Amino acid sequence: MADYILKESQRFNQVLIWIPVVSVTLILLGLSFLLPDKSVDWFDLFITFLILGSAVLFLLSFRLEIRIDGKSLQYKYSPIINNWRKYGFEDIEQIEIMKYNSLLEFGGWGIRYNFDHWLYNTGGKYGLLITTKNKKFMLGTHKPEEAQKAIEQFRKFKLEYNGS
Fold it and tell me: Which spans are transmembrane here (predicted)?
């Protein structure tokens, strides 16, 4: 049987993130048309929309990518972590699926630390908790059933690796 490969790509899609950004943009846009022309400083308005547009583009550029094949786990979190971080199965002690609340346990989404381990996510309520000899971190996943298949493959590898 061929190795199972989990590939997952995630972006931010939380309403709690987008409502304030869209609301501020619409309010500023509405005010710019409602105020008399003489009271609007068009340069300031342009700079404001440039900053808001840059913030929206910056949020849209975030992407967490996870890949688990028959021998390794890899991830990157663009634009912060642009190169793949790779961990061979022989270097990983444990992988498990955890249910968590990012807002309550980590204070939000993105790259977070809770004094026990790092979290890399874009939302959702499931994560892959990875433990190595020197590090512990969690990768958010929107595909817990598919991730479970990759974990079973990891466990099979560990049985064969430790058995020989």
Answer: 15-36, 42-62
